[in-house]
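Q: Here's a chain of 470 amino acids. Please give me its 3D structure as C-alpha cells.
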Amino acid sequence: MNKLMLFWLVFSYLPGLLPQSAIAVTSNQATLNFPDSITFSLDANSDSPIESVVLQYRAIGQSCQDSYSTQAIDFDPAAEVSLTWDWEFKHSGSLPPGTQIEWQWEIRDTSGATMLTDKQTLIVEDNQFAWRIAGRDGVFVYWVTGNQSFGNGLLELAVSGLDRLATNVGMRPAGDVRINVYPDLDSLRATIFYAPEWLGGVAYSEYRIVMTSIAPGEDDWAAEVIPHELAHLVTGELTFNCYGAHIPTWLEEGLAVYAEGPTSDSDIQRVKNALKNGDLEPLHNLTSGFPAQDAQAALAYAQSGQVVGFMVNTYGAEKMSALLAAIKSGETFEKALGQVYDLETDELDSAWRVSLGFAPLPTSQPTQPVATVERTAVPTLALWTSVVQTGATATIIPTEIVTPTETLAPTDTPVPPTATPPPTVAASSTPAPTQPSAASQPALPCAGGMILPLGWGVMLFSKRFSKKSR
C-alpha cells in the first residue's frame, strides 16, 4: 500500500473515530439589570446530554491578566438546557458607564463533543436618562441636564485640562476618554455600590472613564473636578504596573491639583503661613494618606499641588514623565526619584521650601508614626478592577475605549482610588452637598486582578476638598 492510499484511509476513518459535535446554541444573551447585575443566558441542545457549561467573561480594560473569569453553571445533564447566571455587582463591584463586557460559553456533552461560542459584547448603559453627547480630540462628554452650550463648556474644560497635562507635565491618555456627568449627587451615588457620602467625582483609569455630577451653574465645581479627575485617570494609566510599585499620595494628588490650573492666592498664602508657623507636614509624612481633618487635608492638597508645580517649573515636564515611567517599570518611588531627579524626598522637600524663602527640613526628620495622626486611607495600588464573586479571578485586558454610542449609561461601581468629594457651597441655587468626616466603608474590589478572601480586594479612598470649602 503506497503512502497516498494510507493517507486517504486514515482521513476516511478519522471522522468516525472522533466525537462529532452536534451541539447547537439557540439563544445567547446578556441583559444589563441596572444598577444591580448582568444576567447571562444560554439555550443549547445536543444529540447527547449536555453535561458541562462554563461561562467565560470579562470587562475590557487595563489589567495584569490576559484571560477570562470563568463560572461553571450547575444543572442536571440534559439534551436541551436553558441556563442563566447573574454577575452581581454588589459582590464584584459594578462598572462605570461605557465599559465593554465580553463573554462566551464553553459547552461539552457526554459524547465528548465540545463547543466554544463566538465572543459576544455588551456596553454597560444607564437607560434611565436621556444622555446628550459632545466630543472632540478623543474626549467624549455625556450629560443629562443643561443645553448644548453647557455640554460644550464641559468638553472644553476636559480638553484644555488634558492639553495642560500634555504640555506642562508630558502626560496624556493612550486612548479616548469618556466623562459621565450626572445631574445631581444622588443620581451619581445611586450608580456606585458603597459610595461614601462625600463622593463627588471618580476616575476609573483602567477604563479611561470619569464619573461626576455637575449641574448648570456649578461652573467653579466643574472647573475643579473635571481636570482633577482626568489627572487621576492619566496618572493611574501611566503608572499602572504589575509589580506593586505606586506613587505617594502627595504626588498623586499634587498632579491632580496642578491640573486644575493656576494656584489660587489663598492656597499660596495658606501654605506660606503653615511654613512660617512650622505647621506644614514633611512630604514623607504624606506618602500613604492625608490627614482626616478638613483643614489639614486642605493644606495637604495645597502643599502637594505647589510641590508638583515646583517640580515641573524647575526641572521640566520631561523629568516628570520619566519619573512616572520609572514607577510604571516597577521601580519604587524613592529609587525612581533618585534616578530621575538625583534627589531623595526630603531633599526635594527642602529645595521647594528654600525656593519659597524658608529654611530646609532638619537633617534628621523622623517619619511621623501613623498612630499619632488619623489619616484618610488611600489606595496602595494604581487602580482597581472588578473582582468576580465566588472566588473566580476577574480579568480585564488593555484595549482602546470603544467610541461611545448615542445613548450610554452608568452602572454601579465601587469607588476606585480617586474619589473626589463635591464642593461645599453657601446658600445658593446650587445643591449644597455635605462634607462629613472620613468614615469606614465596606471592602471593595482591588487592583490588577488581585484576589483576597471571598474574591474581594480592598480599595480605599482619598479625600478631596474643594476650593470652596477651604
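Q: Can you summarize the key feature?
A: The first strand starts at residue 24 and ends at 33.
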